[in-house]
Every structure is written in structure tokens, then in C-alpha cells.
Amino acid sequence: METEIKVGEAMEPSVITVGPDAPADEVTRMMAKKDIGSVVVVENGKPIGIVTERDFCFGVVAKNKMPSKVKVKDIMSAPLKTIGPDTTLKQASRLMAKHNIRRLPVIDKGVLVGIITNKDILAISPQMIEILEELSKMNAELHSTRETPERGTCEVCGDLMVPVYEVDGIYVCESCKEEKPGGE
User: Fold this and answer.
1) Signed CA dihedral, 9, 14, 19, 24: sign only
2) Overall pTM surpassing 0.70 (yes/no)
3) What is the count of structural domains for the chain?
4) Final residue of a structural domain among 90, 120, 150
5) Is 13 in the same domain as 97?
6) Closest by alpha carbon to 112, among 10, 11, 15, 18?
7) Domain check: are 18 and 109 in the same one?
8) What is the CATH number of the domain that holds 86?
9) Nearest to 16 by CA among 33, 43, 38, 35
10) Neighbours of 167 (CB within 10 A)
11) Is residue 2 part of a domain?
12) Per-residue pLDDT tens digits for 34-90
């Protein structure tokens, strides 16, 4: 029985896209109007990059550039990191943590079908936390002498809201603890 939630179940299916030559000022106005934090840059029907609020801040404002003179292709993040709709949220979280990104366009058979953000994943987290708490209680009953670890993010593999242990000054999950020297 499959119990892991897939990206396709949690993603936002409508993605706002722009061409690479779109002026930064028009794109920021569109993002503000639609209350979104990013747009996917598409060329010839294929996603080639993403432009976020951070890109505008560092690529336009911090460099004191005229937004109407800046094209999104000059400030977008590329190459684009993407994910498939059948990937688990756990795998998506790991990819986001590994690359320090908050959004992943979802591609299915070469077609942009959605976008998953860290907020989408966090929206599912309360349900996951409840399940983890129940499992933890059940495990505690089986191993009542064992110390209950804190929950957090594994600093090695990026798993979120898992029991973590301090090993050599970093917090790791059970799997990574067993692999690290100094772990059990």
C-alpha cells in the first residue's frame, strides 16, 4: 500500500509563465497583482528558468538598475531545477534543501504541469506531524527506556520533521546517524 504523498497531489497546477525578454517592471507588477512570488520563464514552450522576488531584489534593486530596461532572462535562476509529479514530497523536500530553493516547477513528459513550493509541503506537514506523533507514541511504548529525540531537519539528508540526534555537532536522522562515524 502506497502511503507517501506525491508532488502531483500537493502542487499548484496553474503556473504563471513569461518569455525571457519580458521586462522586469511588467513581471513584478503582474506578480504583485496575482500575489505570487515567482514566475517560470518559458522559451519555445519549454521552461528554461525561474524568476523570484529574490532575483528582482538582488538583480535589479541592489544593482540600482532601471526595471523597465532589465529582461527577466538577465536575472532569472537557471538552469532550472524541476521535479516530476510522481516524486514524493520527501524527495522534493530533500531536493529543495540540497539546492537551497523554495520552488520547483513540476514537469511531466516535458510539459510544465504545476509548481510545488515549500509552503505547499508545509501545508501538508500538520497531518504528517500527527501521524509521526502517533507512530512515536507507539514506538515509545515498545521502547519505553529509550530517550525521545527532538524533531527537526536532518542536516545531512534534509528530511523534515523527523527525530534528530546530535552527532559531531550536527543534527541527523536515524538513518544518517548509523552511517556517520561517531553514531551508533
Assistant:
1) negative
2) no
3) 2
4) 120
5) yes
6) 15
7) yes
8) 3.10.580.10
9) 38
10) 19
11) no
12) 999 999 999 998 999 999 999 999 999 989 999 999 999 999 999 999 999 999 888
